[in-house]
Write a structure and sequence with these properties.
With 152 residues, the protein is an alpha+beta fold. The protein has one domain. The protein is built from four helices and six strands, in the order ααβββαβββα.
């Protein structure tokens, strides 16, 4: 890492607050980008050679980002749409997910309703606590995406 690089300082701070060492920011941002509808494509950029870009045509035709532009781990404006997408999964009548954000933690609850019994079953399936709220939400969303992909 270069000294004084602002992004490296942010990453170091996140890793310092990650005693379980579960974060791989680049790989994790790729996972979240895929969950959000981005697909990876390799393109050739003249003298820069080949580069992987992430395309999401549902946002805007031809819209793309390079990996370093994803900032889910530090930007609420990028992370909240991930929370919204998690909460939109499922059927409104029978099952759904709630993301509960607290002072320094985040939980994702799975709620299942049996229509015949009018019974609600709610269970926290993933939760993390960190010194910074955004770190807790980022890690919880990331772990949910991993869990959700394993269910499919």
């Amino acid at each position: 890492m270069e000294k004084g690089n602002k992004k490296d300082k942010v990453l170091k701070e996140i890793f310092d607050n990650d005693p379980q060492n579960i974060l791989d920011i680049e790989g994790d941002d790729k996972s979240i980008a895929k969950f959000m509808g981005y697909t990876a494509k390799v393109v050739y950029r003249g003298t820069r050679g080949k580069e992987t870009i992430y395309v999401n045509n549902s946002i805007r035709e031809g819209h793309y980002k390079v990996l370093r532009e994803f900032d889910y781990h530090k930007n609420w404006s990028s992370l909240i749409p991930v929370v919204d997408k998690i909460e939109s999964i499922g059927s409104e009548l029978t099952r759904y997910f709630d993301v509960v954000i607290s002072y320094n933690g985040c939980q994702i609850h799975y709620t299942k309703q049996r229509l015949s019994e009018l019974e609600l079953k709610r269970k926290a399936i993933i939760e993390f606590y960190r010194n910074k709220k955004i770190d807790a939400v980022y890690i919880t969303c990331l772990e949910f995406i991993k869990w959700y992909n394993e269910q499919a």
